[in-house]
TrEMBL record:
A Pfam family per the record: Methyltransf_25
Gene3D superfamilies: Vaccinia Virus protein VP39
Keywords: Methyltransferase, Transferase
Biological process (GO), any one: methylation
Domain Methyltransferase: 61-157
Protein origin, superkingdom: Bacteria
MF GO annotations: methyltransferase activity
Protein name as it appears in the record: Type 12 methyltransferase
Length: 240
């Protein structure tokens, strides 16, 4: 079961996904991101990437598969406290996620976020981004789709991309089962959470996949709470 990536579709990815299940799913993901490292990974990445940056213009960041926008909103609060000007463009294809995210943005006082209901595989910005991020999104894609998307991104992302996702293992599945039981998650949320882990990655597996890309440098490391942190750096002047 854990030797290779699962390919079954999560309930949340279905066009007819029940809105109540979608809302419960995003609440659970927000809990996981807040309490188990999702937000910290993104903050750590941006802190390291911007440590020697002195430009006054806001950082332009592309967030792919933003869901309820919980991570961009948390990062914006952190960036303000650090004096880092920042602007997010958030891509999300699912209508139920867009509805939830819009509500979150209004309640946050309309922060510097441009929310677009667009497919990352066709998105074409007017201006390039400084960085790209994706959190618990790439496990929804096949290996071929991941390479295709990264090839596109290198055309309009100046510096680097963080892939913040799930490590696939029996221990991760067991930990998820305990958390799901403790939070009394609905059956649909339980189904998707456990399937997400089976669709996740192993360290060497993701490293081998990403190294198929030309003219990039790749770092893939384990992170706390069964996450995986991969950084793809696009080499300037060599984008095709």
């Amino acid at each position: 079961m854990f030797d290779s990536r699962a390919t079954a579709m999560e309930l949340l990815d279905r066009p007819d996904c029940d809105p109540s299940l979608a809302a419960a799913s995003y609440r659970f993901m927000e809990l996981v991101n807040y309490s188990f490292g999702g937000i910290r990974l993104v903050r750590r990445f941006l802190a390291a990437e911007t440590a020697e940056r002195h430009a006054c213009a806001p950082l332009r960041i592309l967030d792919i598969g933003s869901g309820s926008c919980d991570i961009p909103l948390a990062v914006i609060r952190w960036a303000r406290s650090c004096g880092i000007p920042i602007h997010f463009t958030c891509l999300e294809l699912a209508g139920h996620a867009i509805d939830i995210a819009r509500g979150q943005l209004v309640r946050a006082g309309n922060p510097p976020v441009k929310l677009l209901q667009e497919d990352a595989f066709t998105h074409q910005p007017v201006e390039p981004y400084d960085y790209a991020l994706t959190s618990m999104c790439f496990h929804h894609f096949s290996n071929a789709q991941i390479l295709m998307l990264l090839h596109r991104l290198r055309g309009f992302v100046r510096s680097s991309m963080l892939i913040n996702d799930l490590r696939r293992s029996r221990l991760a599945s067991l930990a998820a089962r305990l958390l799901l039981a403790a939070t009394d998650a609905p059956e649909g949320v339980r189904h998707d959470a456990l399937l997400s882990i089976r669709r996740g990655f192993k360290i060497d597996e993701l490293r081998t996949l990403l190294r198929q890309l030309d003219d990039v440098s790749v770092s893939v490391e384990p992170a706390h709470w069964f996450r995986i942190a991969a950084i793809v750096r696009f080499k300037q002047g060599e984008k095709s």
